[in-house]
Write a structure and sequence with these properties.
Layout (H helix, E strand, L loop, with lengths): L11 H15 L11 H12 L4 H14 L3 H5 L3 H8 L6 H16 L8 H5 L6 H12 L8 H12 L10 H10 L4 H17 L18 H4 L19 H13 L7 H5 L5 H13 L4 E2 L5 E2 L4
Helix pairs in contact: 1-11, 2-3, 2-8, 5-6, 9-11, 13-15
């Protein structure tokens, strides 16, 4: 057998066994990976983990499932309670989307998270990634699951570049399908394993090739780790942004069991124009309800 050159993609089958074997040895014991989590636990975790590290998700996830162990339990609550329980996970519209999905599951599927990919995709707030992740991780089905970590692993190991494009491309989806094992159960394991590899070893910075089970087959490493040639990668900023102001406004509303006066919201940020813009955005997104007397509350409907 000839050695792979830096321009060749390693055969899919040569990657499966080492990556899945590594996962069996090194996978973190996370609550949504345990059998008792069920499909609802998997779905909740997928909503929470979007753009949020595991360490921040874990305590909120445990509290959420203790309070709402089934979709119908969440659906019976006001959407504002989902926003309140979301705490400081960030991107709180995810809480509203999860609440909407719980309502649809309760109404359309007798309270059970559907197993069919098309039915998952039809739920409000569920996109291609989340539908594939739930179908794969909860039901052991064969779907390409492309989160940021998986895309980075595939970019390096198969495509020979340091980072994937900023947005998922058709070429990435085609590659992900080509790399999927044929058997459903093994494909689901592969999806979880590549995600974990990207989270723990093939990270965005300071990749640890010495710990990587496919380092000897990695196209990027074999090419000498060429530097990223695409558009500059923008780091996320938070301090001073509308996101920070929105977070502070929501924190006041989450901490209050009754509607909040305008003056209490004005106190969280000095700049009035930015504060008003952030509050208007929260109202437009359905995260805050204005009342006729000038007070505000988390949404009841």
């Amino acid at each position: 057998m000839t050695a792979m050159t830096s321009t060749q993609t390693p055969p899919a089958a040569s990657l499966h066994a080492p990556v899945i074997g590594w996962f069996e040895q090194h996978a973190r014991d996370l609550p949504w990976r345990r059998p008792e989590a069920g499909a609802w636990g998997v779905m909740v975790s997928e909503f929470m983990l979007q753009q949020t590290p595991v360490s921040r998700v874990l305590p909120v996830y445990e509290q959420w499932l203790a309070r709402w162990p089934r979709p119908a339990d969440l659906a019976a609550e006001a959407p504002g309670e989902a926003v309140r329980a979301w705490g400081r996970l960030g991107y709180p519209r995810r809480a509203l989307r999860l609440h909407g999905a719980a309502q649809a599951i309760t109404e359309r599927h007798d309270g059970d998270v559907p197993s069919e990919h098309a039915q998952l995709l039809a739920l409000p707030g569920i996109g291609e990634y989340t539908a594939a992740a739930v179908a794969s991780f909860a039901y052991g089905q064969r779907h390409p699951v492309l989160d940021t970590n998986v895309r980075r692993v595939f970019a390096r190991a198969a495509s020979g570049v340091q980072y994937p494009p900023n947005a998922t491309t058709a070429a990435e989806r085609k590659l992900a399908r080509a790399l999927l094992p044929e058997e459903d159960e093994r494909a689901a394991r592969w999806a979880a394993a590549t995600m974990e590899l990207g989270a723990l070893v093939c990270t965005a910075r300071n990749e640890d090739c010495d710990r990587c089970p496919i380092a000897s087959r990695c196209a990027w490493r074999l090419a000498g780790k060429p530097a990223h040639q695409g558009p500059p990668r923008k780091g996320q900023t938070y301090a001073g942004t509308d996101r920070q102001v929105r977070g502070r406004l929501l924190a006041v509303l989450r901490d209050s069991v009754s509607p909040v006066a305008q003056a209490a919201l004005d106190a969280v940020w000095e700049e009035p124009v930015q504060r008003a813009r952030a509050l208007d955005g929260l109202v437009a997104d359905g995260l805050v309800e204005p009342l006729a007397d000038g007070r505000y509350r988390l949404p009841l409907t």
